[in-house]
Amino acid sequence: MALSDDAKNKAEELKGRGKEAAGSLTDDQDLKNEGKGDQAVAQGKQKIADAADAVKGKVDDIKDKLSGN
């Protein structure tokens, strides 16, 4: 079974948190920054997916109204 986009984004965010934590523990600023970047990318992807879902929901609502459902 394929992972949903939500699950993939959450996994990417968690991976970023892990990198950030590892960077903090090892005093590796590059790894810490990479982790923060991974989290930001995952959060951005999730916001785009949420917006797309909202638009799809509105389009479906309009289709239902036009078809009398």
Q: Can you give keywords for this protein?
A:
69 residues; mainly alpha; 2 helices; rod-shaped; CsbD
Question: Brief overview, please?
Answer:
Pfam families: CsbD (PF05532). It is rod-shaped and about 60 Å long. The protein has helices at 5-26, 29-67.
Helix and strand run = HH
Write down how many β-strands occur, each being a DSSP E stretch of 2 or more residues: 0
- Helix proportion range: over 70%
State the major sheet.
none
What is the helix tally?
Answer: 2
Poorly predicted spans: none
Mean of residue pLDDT values:
93
Shape: rod-shaped
Taken as a percent bin, the fraction of beta residues is under 5%
Overall SS class: mainly alpha
Span between N and C termini?
A: 32 Å
How would you describe the oligomerization state of the chains in this entry? single chain
Using the CA coordinates, give the radius of gyration.
18 Å
Describe this structure in words.
This protein is 88% helix and 0% strand. It has two helices and no strands. The longest helix is centred in the C-terminal third of the chain and has 39 residues, at 29-67. The model has no long low-confidence stretch (mean pLDDT 93). InterPro entries: CsbD, YjbJ_sf.
SSE layout and pairing:
Layout: H1 5-26, H2 29-67
